[in-house]
């Protein structure tokens, strides 16, 4: 009985002591700041992504399906995300991105094999874009617009887009819609031996003769539905129909025919059994994809992706990808990944010297052929709470290596680094 | 639309509808695992350039967050 009394007394003293820290006087009235959002423009995050890509193979489309495909690309993007709340409490997010790629291509150099090194042997692509999205933090609903531009020495692109997000009341279902238009202009560069008299090389460094320009316009939409399925599983279903119109063939890519006839004469009077690539002026594409991510336990997560693709050129493809992030600690993960693609090629493809002159459309571009490919690699992610290497602003560091092998003989390697600052 | 295309579309639609029907309502406070950075339902930013080279080296593209137009990619 004494124990009960002592227990009740201890409980009472405990309750008293818990109130001992509170003041008995009424605190001065202050405005509720729990929902306060600053209206100043602030930096949410900055991402820097840099990659080095190198490939090799022996089926270059520039030389009709034979010859080196050696290519190196050094690609970089910097994106800055800023946000600001307006008077109505809506969040305005601005995402500015600047991309700069520099590539060297041995096959593009063969557009003009008589020069020591043609203008096309290397190029730099610059592509800025700006997205503005307005969102409601309470509902999760959002909409926005994007403007983009891309410039290469023979190619220019202007893009515009619209995005819309709708989230269910319980925040377990999200619908996203995107629409994009790209209005591109392509300088028509021809293989040196197939240029008509007076037609330029496209390089203004040493040749001011005129070249044609042709449009290539792309219109795409994306409908996606993401769903929380359980406390460990969520999925995404996406359909992304698109349509392209204009010059869809690459006019500096050669095709060699099986007949014995001449269509042009080279600088030395050589006779060529060749033409430039010819493909239809329109293309409909329909990719359908699903993603499922499963939180297996505190150490393993399974990320999966599958896509079926079809278009009106006859290409059909199945792509499956699996990635298994292994959490070594809460802030360090290693993610091995594997991707497999099986592609049934376009009806317009034939290898070097196998096209017939009676065909209307023809290409020897192995990217459009029948093949299967394997891509394997590893992703390393560091995101310690005190910043990577103790630098508070460096929120996350990701390093990624991948090796790609295609059944046509093409192989490539890519190394990517992503730095996220907050 | 061919019979094969219809079948593929029906398969995807039916599968997703079945999944939606089997969903349990998950509360916000139960989403700590789903909110893990590795559980994001989009491709990683570090995959951006992989998707670009795959777009150029394969005829198939789209539905994975990669670009669907703009810029040449003809090298």
TrEMBL record, chain A:
UniProt keyword Signal, yes or no: yes
UniProt keyword terms in alphabetical order: Signal
Domain of life: Bacteria
InterPro entries for the chain: DUF3570 (IPR021953)
Signal peptide, first to last residue: 1-20
The name this protein goes by in its record: DUF3570 domain-containing protein
Protein species of origin: Mucilaginibacter xinganensis
From TrEMBL, chain B:
Domain DUF4266 residues, every copy: 26-75
InterPro entries: DUF4266
Pfam families linked: DUF4266 (PF14086)
First and last residue of the signal peptide: 1-21
Keyword list, A-Z: Signal
Protein name: DUF4266 domain-containing protein
Classification lineage: Bacteria, Pseudomonadati, Bacteroidota, Sphingobacteriia, Sphingobacteriales
């Amino acid at each position: 009985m004494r124990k009960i009394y002592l227990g009740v007394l201890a409980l009472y003293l405990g309750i008293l002591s818990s109130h001992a820290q509170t003041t008995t006087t009424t605190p001065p009235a202050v405005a509720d700041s729990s929902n306060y959002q600053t209206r100043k423009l602030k930096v949410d995050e900055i991402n820097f992504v840099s990659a080095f890509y190198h490939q090799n193979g022996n089926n270059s489309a520039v030389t009709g399906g034979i010859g080196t495909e050696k290519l190196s690309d050094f690609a970089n993007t910097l994106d800055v995300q800023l946000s600001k709340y307006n008077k109505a409490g809506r969040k305005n997010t601005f995402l500015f991105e600047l991309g700069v790629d520099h590539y060297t291509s041995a096959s593009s150099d063969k557009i003009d094999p008589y020069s020591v090194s043609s203008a096309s042997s290397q190029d730099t692509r610059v592509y800025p874009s700006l997205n503005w999205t307005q969102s409601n933090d309470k509902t999760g609903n959002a909409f926005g617009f994007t403007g983009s531009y891309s410039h290469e020495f023979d190619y220019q692109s202007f893009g515009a887009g619209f995005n819309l997000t709708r989230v269910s009341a319980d925040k377990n279902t999200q619908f996203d819609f995107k629409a994009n238009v790209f209005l591109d202009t392509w300088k028509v560069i021809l293989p040196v031996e197939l240029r008509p008299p007076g037609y330029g090389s496209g390089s203004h460094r040493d040749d001011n003769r005129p070249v044609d320009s042709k449009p290539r316009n792309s219109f795409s939409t994306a409908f996606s539905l993401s769903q929380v399925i359980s406390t460990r599983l969520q999925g995404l279903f996406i359909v992304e129909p698109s349509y392209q119109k204009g010059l869809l063939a690459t006019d500096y890519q050669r095709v060699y025919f099986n007949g014995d006839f001449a269509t042009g004469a080279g600088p030395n009077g050589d006779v060529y059994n060749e033409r430039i690539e010819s493909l239809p002026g329109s293309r409909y594409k329909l990719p359908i994809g699903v993603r499922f991510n499963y939180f297996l336990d505190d150490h393993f997560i399974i990320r999966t992706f599958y896509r079926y693709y079809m278009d009106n050129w006859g290409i059909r493809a199945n792509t499956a990808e699996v990635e298994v992030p292994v959490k070594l600690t809460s802030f360090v993960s290693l993610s091995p990944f594997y991707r497999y693609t099986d592609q049934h090629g376009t009806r317009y493809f034939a290898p070097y010297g196998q096209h017939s002159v009676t065909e209307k459309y023809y290409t020897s571009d192995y990217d459009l052929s029948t093949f299967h490919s394997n891509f394997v690699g590893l992703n390393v992610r560091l995101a310690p709470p005190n910043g990577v290497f103790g630098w508070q602003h460096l929120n996350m560091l990701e390093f990624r290596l991948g090796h790609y092998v295609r059944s046509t003989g093409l192989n490539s390697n890519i190394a990517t680094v992503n730095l996220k600052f907050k | 639309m061919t019979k094969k295309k219809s079948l593929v579309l029906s398969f995807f639609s039916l599968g997703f509808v079945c999944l939606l029907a089997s969903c349990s309502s998950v509360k916000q406070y139960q989403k700590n695992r789903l909110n893990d950075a590795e559980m994001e339902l989009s491709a990683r930013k570090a995959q951006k350039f992989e998707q670009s080279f795959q777009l150029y080296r394969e005829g198939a593209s789209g539905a994975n967050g990669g670009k669907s137009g703009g810029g040449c990619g003809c090298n």
